[in-house]
Amino acid sequence: MVDVTKNLKVYTTYGPKTAKGTKPAIVAKMIEKAKRPLFVVGSEVLEEELLARAKAIAKKGIPVAATGHSIKGFIDEEGVDAKYINIHFLGTFLCDPKWGGLDDNGCYDLIILLGHKKYYINQVLSGLKNFQT
After folding, report:
1. pLDDT of the residue at 120
2. Number of folded domains in the chain?
């Protein structure tokens, strides 16, 4: 008999022990130092104020991976390089060191996530954490 509850705890990222809030200045410095950042936005980003902020970040030259129906907020936006991708596929591709990225220029060294439901994105991040090669 397998204790499913015990086994699942190993592979999830729920809880405050695995994530901590960070000051915006620290995040800005991380983005500045990254050679190949990727901005991954979820459907929750379509809220008006959050979408405006996401577009401002994207206009800094960071490529956008629009998941769910978030691509609606970036269609025909001047100065934004947004491409649609399924979040589960993206999670799988990010584990592959041979993946060329959305633009075929190589892997990303920083992933910025915004506008995802916690319970949904945690499973994708769990896959990255536990199954990266």
Report:
1. 78
2. 1
